[in-house]
């Protein structure tokens, strides 16, 4: 039995920012955006962040691509954002759900090798068993070999950007499938080229 | 009836990063930290983020102070973090809960005038009425005059850094009081000195 007032769209969104710690941060962001095909997602940028919406494949494809192309400059760059699915009433942009599942940016992203340190947290919102959902998905990242440790309020992933984004995507998609109306969010801070000593 | 396996501490934490978009980002962060008294919070920094834990007053006092002192440089600086309370089993650092409520950094922060644009989202985790809790706290920010609009997955606040942090603190603390074992998280991206046109 489902509430009639709730949206039933399974559109995925990510509200994120790319932070290049450099005087020429605008050029780095614009340069990365130019290399990414965003035609399969709804996208809007304001002065605080960018929001992309569409099928989960394309949301992860586009966010990884923008971050990877910014990070390949060698500058210390951080992706910080929140992925979301199932927010009640959230259906705007549903036309993008009919795009095919072929990822438009994977080929160009994949050739870039970027080591990242990541902290992420899953928030299953309308699920009384949420702590188990979180534990299960940390287990998935552990199986991938990307999970390095738990820290207060987050789990840490280290490795190649492609492996880490794959763990993030699987954790998020798995958690979103625990119920056909689940509302799940996931924060992720993905850092490349930090001058600080790795803490893993 | 309460589960025996859960922590009962009401310690508040924030895992956050300060991102100065400048070549001298390390100096800006270190400079800001030097101006902030962190003796009333547990604090640990790694290569991705910093975690502070203690009474809510001091967590908000310290995070606002670090951000404000970084932003007063005039550089484009963003605070991006997640505040948390009530995570089951989270009790480490409880000694900091016996500190007095006097804020150690408010006086020095208050003299700085910094205009900010903010996007925040509340996530009440173990509450079936979570959408109402969120709506109520967006209403609190509207009453403060800081709320400017809703965007996908977040609410926008604009104004003076002190007014905006007060709205964030009240929204978070109010949401955390909906139940004596509530588990609530709140993400916030607070941006100062952006070269982009304000979108409010
Ligand atoms: Ca965040």
TrEMBL record, chains A, B:
Pfam families: Ykof (PF07615)
Tree of life domain: Bacteria
Record SUPFAM superfamilies: MTH1187/YkoF-like (SSF89957)
Classification via InterPro entries: HMP/thiamine-bd (IPR015835), MTH1187/YkoF-like (IPR029756), Thiamin/HMP-bd_put_YkoF (IPR011522)
Gene3D superfamilies: 3.30.70.930
GO MF terms held by the record: thiamine binding
Ranges of residues in domain Thiamin/hydroxymethyl pyrimidine-binding YkoF putative: 11-90, 116-196
Binding site for thiamine: 18, 50
Protein name per UniProt: Thiamine-binding protein
Native species: Alteribacter keqinensis
